[in-house]
Amino acid sequence: MTPRVTLAVAARVITQLRRDPRTVALLIALPTVFVTLMWWMFHDNPAVFDQIGGPLLAIFPSIVMFVVTAVTTLRERSGGTLSRLFTMPMAKLDFLLGYALAFALVAVVQAVVLVSITLYLLGLDIQGAAWQLGVVAVLDGVLGAALGLLSSAFAATEFQAVQMMPAIMIPQILLCGLFVPRSGLPSVLHAVSDVLPLSYAVDAVLGVAKGNGFTTTTGADALVVFAFIVAALALGAATLRRRTA
Fold this sequence. Notes:
Layout: H1 3-18, H2 21-41, H3 46-78, H4 81-85, H5 92-120, H6 130-152, H7 158-175, H8 187-193, H9 197-209, H10 217-239
Helix pairs in contact: 1-5, 2-3, 2-5, 3-5, 3-6, 3-7, 3-9, 5-6, 5-10, 6-9, 6-10, 9-10
């Protein structure tokens, strides 16, 4: 890995995003729109929104980032751009880390907008600090991007990349604790949820909502999410094909 090359890839992706305002709007605005819709649905029962609002801050950014990064990376490979890039002295890890860094910057903006509107306009009640919730939201967005980059390595077309989303994300949504607390899941499903990254993303958000700082298990959950990000990028670099078969 070469930091200079990684930063060059990140700069290239940021430039592409600046030329595609619709994608930027999708990445930044869509999670907020989804959370606002849920707030509206439970407007007459704010206690329910306070209960599910935290997990939604982990789930929606991950889903949106997953879809966009998976399709964007697949387009790079199917269009031949990736093959041309690899004619230069660039490792596969440089490519993936550059993409992850670029989308991490987008995740920061996404988290600022999402957390600010959710806390100060929609009135989500949390005991922890807003900046801690923002840090976890950024990690969750980057997690979705890393999983999207990983899934793109196994897809041959953009349609296949989109199909990866329900296969990878929906089981995590069902078992992450949004509908049923993980402690109340059957033992087999609880064991499965223990190896799914979104479970720890939701646990970290819930920990912040309860006022637990990063020196508690909330910090450990956040570190596990970070570890999943690193593992997804490393596995993606090991399995990334330079061209579509």
